[in-house]
Design goal:
The chain is mainly α and about 475 residues long. It has helices at about 5-30, 30-40, 50-80, 80-100, 120-145, 155-180, 185-200, 200-210, 215-220, 225-235, 240-255, 265-280, 285-290, 290-295, 300-325, 330-355, 360-375, 375-385, 395-420, 425-430, 435-450, 460-484. The protein binds beta-D-glucopyranose (BGC).
Length: about 475
Amino acid sequence: MSKGNTGLVVALTFVATLGGLLFGYDTAVISGAVSAIDHYFIDPQHLAQTAASSLSGWTIASALLGCVIGSAVAGWVSTRFGRKGGLIVAALMFLVGSIGSAVPELGLGVIGQMGPAALTPFICYRILGGIGVGIASMISPLYIAEIAPSEIRGRLVSFNQLAIVIGILLVYFVNWFIQSLGTPQWYFDTAWRLMFASEAIPALLFLALLAFVPDTPRWFVMRGRTEEALTQLTRVNGPERARSILADIERSLHVRSERLLAFGAPVLLIGILLSVFQQLVGINAVLYYAPLMFKNMGASTNSAFLQTVVVGAANLLFTFVAIATVDRLGRKPLLVIGSLAMAAAMFLLGGLFDASAVGLWALVAVVAYIAGFALSWGPVVWVLLSEMFPNSIKSKAMAIAVAAQWIANLFVSWSFKVLDGSGWLNHHFHHGFAYWIYGAMSVLSAIFVVRYVPETKGRTLESIQELWHAHRRDNAAAVASAGE
Ligand code: BGC
């Protein structure tokens, strides 16, 4: 590939990864606003403690519900309006969600005077923003995979994960900065609104840049716009290769019907399990509750905040390791290495809690765990989800797998709080029980990868499709010979 072409692909990838940046930004912005939300919406209701914390928990988690909805409709959106059109819808959702969460009273009452009466619109705007996250979480990697040449596809899709992680870190800093500008009263009145409003800046940038990107060749072919597909492929791959890729795409789209299970259930099941395992290893229990975890270890609030930043930085740093190695080492070795590192780190952490021996070693274990995730399951799952499904079922199948991921995320984030709040478990495991489970899940995830996940490194999307055909043929032959 010539230099100019690489430049074009990188530029298009950059625009698509802004969807990833907003994904990270929007899911983590809430961490800075939790106590202000309690102060403005929840406390004035004078509820009993359990009812108050459950309402607060729902208010915070409501965006994740939006993510489930967004990823579930993303397949339809990306087929109907195109990959580019879907990203535009997501950018608009980010914008509306951001402004609406900042001033949920808009059009309903005086800003700052409505209190709990503005809670329902606030939740609705969070859900809308979440729908944007859900749509972008599926379409950004899909877009990148569909424009990328196969030899650098893994690296380019990993950039999306890098953007997610940068978004998380960026909003930690933005929140910290905004909150440092005024008094505690100002934080309760204004700062939290600015935190949500700040998201409008990357959202507007995303929207503006999307005006300049084309749709993907695979979508053009799906819509019968072959000329545009060929132009796009030629710009990236040169004329000769473009024609052969176009022929492959056309074959992959027309050979089979669009039935979801046309390639058998395993391909869909493996996609769903990749997503679910990415969450069951406990990443968001650690990321969303890091300050709480460090407090459980006996840290002061300030030091818990600092250690959280260390976790965010490690997440960013080790994502680079994946980017550098995913197209050379391959997807499977990275996943297995990551699983084993996470299992060892989680068992160490569980043991440290058990022995009430937390301290520096616990921080080391958490950082090792994050490093293990960041160099493997974080980026690689998105790479695999974007490339493993055959073209004709890709958008539907990917949307299902991504929706499964958000549901698993919701489950883990909610159940961690339940496990951590159980008096019986804490008596026996000293707040360490959840980590034993995440360690066991990490071991299971390694076994799953070794046994069931195919290697896709360096193959074109169309030849990956052939893998599943072969898989089906092998299975059919095995069944036939068993019957003889
Ligand atoms: C996962 C998110 C997670 C993030 C952390 C992503 O790949 O999908 O759930 O919060 O990685 O880096």
